[in-house]
Automatic annotation (TrEMBL):
Signal peptide positions (record): 1-16
Record-given protein name: Nose resistant-to-fluoxetine protein N-terminal domain-containing protein
Transmembrane helix recorded as keyword: yes
GO molecular function (one): acyltransferase activity, transferring groups other than amino-acyl groups
Domain of life of the organism encoding this protein: Eukaryota
Keyword tags: Membrane, Signal, Transmembrane, Transmembrane helix
Pfam families associated with the record: Acyl_transf_3, NRF
Amino acid sequence: MKTVLVFLLTVSLSQCKLPLTFLKLQATQFVKTSNTSANCATDFSLLISDLFEMKMWALKMFDATTKLDAGILSGNVHFFGDYDLCVSIKEKTKTRTVEGKYCSAIITLNTSFTEVHEQMPKLKNWEKSISTMLLPGQSNDVQGLGGLIGICVPKSCTLGDLETLTGHVESKFKIPIHLSFREELCVYKNKSIKINKLDLLGFCIFIFIGVVLVASTFYDVYLQGSGTFKIFSVYTNLKKALHQAENKKLNCLNGIKVISCLWVIYGHTAIIVGITTKNLVYQLTEWRYWPSGIFACSGHYAVDTFFMLSGLLVSYGYLKNSQNLSTSLIAFYFKRLSRLLPTMGIVVLIQIALLKLFINGPFGHLLVDLFIEKCYDNWPSMVFCTFNFMRDFKCGINHLWYMSSDTQMYLLAPIFLFFIRKHPRKVIAGMVVTFLFAVGYSVAVTFMKNLGFTYYDWSNEFAYYLSFSTIHRLPSWLIGVFCGYLLQFQNVKILKKLNIFLLLVSFLSMILLIMNQLSLMEGEYNVYRFAVWNGLARPAWSSALAYIIFSCATGHGAYYSIYCHRALRKHQFLSTCVVSPGVLGGSALVGCSVPPPNLFITALLDEWVAHAESPTTRQRARVAKIHKYFHNQPVEYFENNGQKEFVVAVRPPSIGPVFLVVKGPAPFDLAHLVSPKQSRASRLFWRSLKKIEATR
């Protein structure tokens, strides 16, 4: 019986081997008749032979090649295979060495496939959407990201060999799908990258900078040196960068900056990752309507936040120190350009010289070609801040358009700032006219070019005329300039109920602006509707956020102090990471919920106690008493005798007004009220407080 079983097994194996042998011979013959190069044909024949003999290297190459997956009709058109396994293959034989090469083949549909293609409405919509998303000049670069299939082939096979071989398969078996190949989408281990003279210049510059930093740090830390050479010390500069300046007025901006930056990063990450995901159709037809998708696609509001903050800081910083600053245009511009141009130059050098050394993966060389090689001709426009004027964006550092627009707005700032103190009404009227002109431009260009509003309406014209346009972004910047001007007035009084009402209106407006993305994506295109939104949405967002900042900075944001714990005041970076229950509320409130400390006695005393080594019981009692009578009461400064004497007025409603005379150039430190070495002014303060308590 055992002999019979062995005989039957042997016969069955031999019967299975016959068709395998036939397939092996047919495949080998097919490769030989496909007119490929000799090396490619030899390696492919060896691959087929060793694959049927179950050799490990051939199995790995077959395993690294992608296989069709389920869900093609739903849009699963990205088949990546195993990139790392493919490029790691290296088989040495007696006569040659076979290495793996990973190629992302671009999938296109033949015209004979029309009937089946009509049954794929999602794919048709996807093709239409992707064509509007791609910028002219880049559509040929990234069109392969629409439908890809990753295959692992011998390194000796050129693009011509692969085109010939796949074309032979298509014609032989009447396959309605065509595969095309590009050099940038074929990667193998240690594939060379072009190095030119500009790259060498970048390497030399970075080596020089590194040597200077190391030498300066060594001079500072180990030799304890001082002088000019110490200014390049990494230790000293990092210490200064991480140091928190006390009593900083606009600390409310820290949280807004960080969360807005995270919002921008999240939006770009979600969209870029979606392009290279397995199913792009899902992103375009389903995910875009989810709350996470709506929030990601609303990231352009965060960009308007930065424009508004830029105008606010330029206006507030200049007007606050205008008496000590020169009104020279050269000095005003030099301050900005001396900080910006070196940084921009370093960023460009990193992008075109160093980044290519760290790029890897199936699309690594495509990214080098798209994001780096095409930057060589455009670097002057990036460094000198005219990048947003370009019609064809042929470089991957497209995010530098923001720096270009922001710098161009900074160049306009002296027109308003140099004269707003002497002629406030005329300057504000000019700002209103400029604001209306910019809004009118956005409305008109939307009508003329039939432009959209959301990310999925993106096109080259949308980028040039709206998204990257300085005129389109100008209203947000002007709102920031006006807000910075209003912050010069410290004694602003707003009724509590009115303030709460305006804050609620601001929050609700921002929420509605975000949620309206859904209606704009779902509804049919209406040029009137999109024109209104392109003209008013960004200014509305900036206005709402500007009032929130104004409320916090003038001491009317204390209602939201729960969002910022007292322990976080010492570290600005940590305070910006506090998460509030609402995403929108968090972006507006985190960091700005606590009013500027220099406006409140209690906040100053809290900082003094936090920094004091061992406050006495008497000092703590005095702090508690001041908290009792002066909790969240703003301080007003009145100049009494030039720059040497100030009168500080505190008006707690429970005990009446208290006046304190402070000697010195800047009455921003009231912690001496409880310090061991009390000044004459502090003793007068306690005497007046004692008399007021006695008369109650």
